[in-house]
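Board work, copied verbatim: G-protein coupled receptors family 1 profile domain-containing protein
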Amino acid sequence: MYWHQYPWTFGLIFCKLRALISETASYVSVLTVVAFSTERYIAICHPLYLRAISGLHRAIWIIGALWIVSLICALPFAVNTEITYVFYPYNTTNIVQESAMCAMVSQPEHVPLTELSTIIFFILPMIVIAVLYTNMGIAIARASDGKLGGGKLKGSIHRKNKKNQSNKSIIRMLCKYFYGLI
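↓ predict structure ↓
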């Protein structure tokens, strides 16, 4: 796309393929970040559950599912992407061949494709990630306060302070990571 987008000389098939690959890659990237965030949430808030369900086979299945969902969701963009031309003079049928552009100029009727894509692959993932990281921060803060058993260590006061400092560093790291995604 960046190498040679205008004028488009690669034909309709490559135009549609470019749209499909571009959208699929964007969607799978977002879904992968959500999947990793979910894995972190489970590891922090439900560590015993994660240990019971972890494994290479499960990871491969999740990655494959993300790619399939992304590919299916990107298909409407590929179907609606066309090669468009400038007509000169305006309101004639004379096309300017050098004006060929591969783009989705019009959306399908009754389906706000761009808006749906924004909601499903930007707004909803951002909300899910925000909720997951908020819950992780709360769980770590509770553990450092002793509400989830983290403060029940017996022994020196230094051990408790190190645990609290460690938990505060983890919360800061989670906040930096989350705000880095936005």
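Residues 11-181 form a domain with the Rhopdopsin 7-helix transmembrane proteins fold (CATH 1.20.1070.10).
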